[in-house]
Amino acid sequence: MSSMAHEQVIYGNILYGEDLSLVKGYVCIRDGIIHEVCEEPTSSENIIAPCFTNCHTHIGDSVCKDPCIGPAEDFVVKRDLNSLVRPPDGLKHRILAKTSDRELVEYMRTSIRDMLATGTTGFADFREGGYRGVLALKDALKAMDIDSRIFARPDSREYNMPVHEGISLLLSQADGIGMSGAHDIDLNLLTQIADSCHKSGRPFCIHAGEKSRHDIKDALSLQPDMLVHLTQAVQSDLKNVADASIPVVVCPRSNFLTGVGIAPVAEMLKAGINVGVGTDNVMLNSVNMFSEMEFLSKVFGLEDRQVFKMCTLNGASILEMEGKGPLLEGDKANLMVLDGTSNNLKGIQDVLSGLVRRARPDDILSIIH
């Protein structure tokens, strides 16, 4: 890697453009913009690829990273979705209620730092805690070089206001609204919340079809801008989602751990749905997107190119994050450089498959964004 004032030239195996075509040569970056991508003989085995976009997190959960999950004895939490995360009495909500703002902010910062260290430069958080929760996340984001989308969830304070007033208060600080499910609160109230978002031009996002498919129809009636999970969706559900052009974010490791099953990702892609990936609750999983890629490739059996796109380019398009797209001339640089000669990666025959199936955060040499 060589550099001069405001310019970097990086040699290696480049995953170029929308199709992630392999170009062996160099990338020239000037003042943060990709000036040139050139095919040229090089001895460098480094891998140059777009950074990750983590489309669904709950980083407030960072205050509890090791819940004891197991059978139904009193001293552990059942391996049951409602026991873990359903508001208002799930484990995470009981813990968050006892956590001070100062502690919450510091722990969220640890997860943001972890995302940056593991190749993620953009993320979306479903922020619990209402207005207070949004402000805590904004405080945690200060001086952090990462792009974010904060999807707020009303708390008791906002629920005690007229709906439009409560949602307007949240949207004065947040990017949109992110609800837990269509059957977790009164559907008429949810409809009013969604309408307030639509009128303001802000995203309305909601979990759906995670434990059961019975809430998918009601979720779709709210005209959401993004659905999360759809673990239990059947073909007719996917057709309705595709017809409405609604993107879906899947959380493979989280859904596996909570026992709700495997999302029909291959069928989603076949239906033409734009699918992104999230790590979900920090309580259950790290924010490491390399782990999500390996899981999707090896457990779901998806094509590696599609897996990488889901974890990078698709996520950026779903969250409408500028500068997080494919590696192209004229665009803002948003790339990670991995050591192709590391003990882990040395000897891989297919750059993209090696990256998806076995790369780890410790293979990263640098992140430029």
Automatic annotation (TrEMBL):
GO MF annotation, one: hydrolase activity, acting on carbon-nitrogen (but not peptide) bonds
Keyword vocabulary terms for this entry: Hydrolase
Protein's name in the database: Amidohydrolase
Record CDD domains: archeal_chlorohydrolases (cd01305)
Presence of the UniProt keyword Methyltransferase in the record: no
UniProt xrefs under InterPro entries: Amidohydro-rel, Metal-dep_hydrolase_composite, Metal_Hydrolase, MTA/SAH_deaminase
Species whose genome carries this gene: Methanohalophilus mahii (strain ATCC 35705 / DSM 5219 / SLP)
Occurrences of domain Amidohydrolase-related (ranges): 47-343
UniProt xrefs under Pfam families: Amidohydro_1 (PF01979)
Keyword Hydrolase belongs to the record: yes
Matching Gene3D superfamilies: Metal-dependent hydrolases, Urease, subunit C, domain 1
